[in-house]
Design goal:
Layout (H helix, E strand, L loop, with lengths): L6 H5 L6 H9 L10 E2 L13 H7 L14 H15 L11 E4 L1 H8 L1 H10 L7 E6 L3 H9 L3 E6 L10 H5 L2 H5 L1 E7 L11 H13 L3 E5 L14 H5 L9 E6 H4 L8 E5 L1 H14 L5 H11 L3 H21 L13 E5 L6 H12 L1 E2 L1 E2 L17 E5 L4 H11 L5
Parallel strand pairs: 1-10, 3-4, 3-5, 5-6, 6-7
Antiparallel strand pairs: 2-8, 7-8, 9-12, 11-12
Length: 408
């Protein structure tokens, strides 16, 4: 593995976040418009549920107590009930053993790498364990892999593969699969918006079981979609005799409920694996504050605000449809709230990001900063920019109307 991708590089600050890299790219460059518009951060700006503050105040006394790291019975029951309603799994998920709350999905995704590598090493693996991840990828996947001592292996997700990793190519590499500890997948995908079908999820799960590694299914954007609701990992796994074996899904209230600052999420699935993950978190992980747990239970139980949220994003995509048409390879994505625009006609994504800021005052993330360059020198995000549709419709329209002139 390259020295640029190692625990030492992670620890000494050599590995930078996409946002730090963007700051370096734009350092000293003034925006080319009196009204700059930032479309980089995937921070929802729709209205959060109005009762959250009251629910936190209602449980204020819990701030004086150490909160249960396994989560309260109330919270786990609310999450199980939501999973039941959303994925037609009423009464199927055991809230006592198959749900583990966490401080946002990022925390869960990171810590899960440790027991995944540990269980692989217990199998007598003589080689270095590998953790596979979709490419582009969420940075927590890479951080978890490096911190757990695994080799990160990037599976390109391009237009040619439907913006999801090619499972045929993966299955054709038994040596890699034999040392795989975990596979991170994201659906709807960040940033491309692709949704994994039930057949795709079932195939990935079958590979995990055949080669006994963990499938980590990141469903953070599951409630923001354009057509049919995206299928979930638990929904697919529940139809198999093994139920949730080798599978853990991750979700949170950040995107679903416009509560990124609440830091409230969960992991759910394989009860045996979650029991080990609990012990890891019990040693080194932070608890979710008691009032946050109480408020989160109420948010998982309420769906009206989620429907309103989805309608708001639908209107934003209507704006993108009208302004972009088919420019830059735009197609309305199946899920999520990002645009993944091909800027190859004017160079690469980094050049486009610099130009958009310098000439039009629009800030976006170069796609290459969200993906890893392979041994052959290619980066699946090189030609792209990621645009976050988190502002109001008017601001998005203005930003996209500036963006379409970037090729002029």
């Amino acid at each position: 593995m390259s020295d640029t991708l190692s625990l030492a590089a992670l620890a000494d600050g050599t590995i930078l976040s996409p946002f730090s890299r963007l700051r370096q790219l734009l350092d000293g460059v003034a925006p080319g418009h009196a009204k700059p518009i930032d479309l980089t951060l995937g921070e929802p700006r729709e209205t959060m549920p109005p009762f959250v503050a009251a629910k936190i105040a209602e449980a204020e006394a819990l701030f004086a107590k150490y909160p249960p790291i396994r989560g309260s019975d109330e919270l786990r029951a609310a999450i199980a009930a939501w999973i039941g309603r959303r994925f037609n799994l009423e009464g199927i998920v055991d809230p006592a053993t198959e749900i583990l709350p966490c401080n946002g999905s990022r925390e869960g995704l990171f810590y899960a790498a440790f027991p995944a590598v540990g269980r692989k090493q217990k199998q007598g693996l003589a080689e270095r364990p590998a953790i596979l991840m979709c490419n582009p990828f969420y940075q927590a996947y890479l951080g978890g892999a490096l911190a757990a001592g695994a080799e990160p292996v990037f599976l390109d997700a391009t237009a040619a593969t439907g913006h999801l990793p090619d499972l045929d190519a993966l299955e054709a590499d038994p040596a890699l699969l034999a040392r795989t500890a975990a596979l991170y997948l994201c659906s709807p995908a960040n940033p491309q918006g692709a949704v994994a079908s039930e057949a795709y999820i079932a195939r990935a799960l079958a590979l995990a079981r055949t080669h006994d590694f963990m499938l980590f299914f990141d469903e953070c954007y599951s409630e923001i979609y354009s057509g049919a609701p995206p299928p979930g990992g638990l929904e697919v796994a529940a139809k198999t005799p093994e139920r949730f074996r080798n599978l853990v899904v991750f979700n949170s209230l950040s995107k679903r409920s416009n509560l990124p600052g609440l830091r409230s999420g969960f992991s759910a699935g394989d009860g045996g694996f979650l029991a080990t993950l609990f012990e890891v978190r019990n040693l080194i992980g932070p608890q979710m504050p008691g009032p946050t747990q109480h408020a989160s239970a109420a948010v998982w139980a309420e769906e009206q605000h989620v429907t309103a949220n989805r309608l708001a994003y639908s209107r934003k995509y209507d704006v993108a449809d009208a302004v972009l048409g088919d420019r830059f390879g735009y197609r309305r994505p199946a899920g999520g709230f990002f645009l993944w625009l091909d800027m190859s006609q004017i160079g690469d994504g980094a050049h486009a990001a610099l130009t958009l800021w310098k000439r039009f005052g629009v800030k976006v993330i170069p796609g290459a900063y969200l993906a890893q360059t392979g041994p052959d020198g290619t980066n699946p995000g090189a030609n792209y920019i990621r645009v976050a549709l988190v502002h109001d419709e008017g601001t998005i329209r203005e930003a996209l109307e500036r963006l379409v002139h970037v090729s002029a």
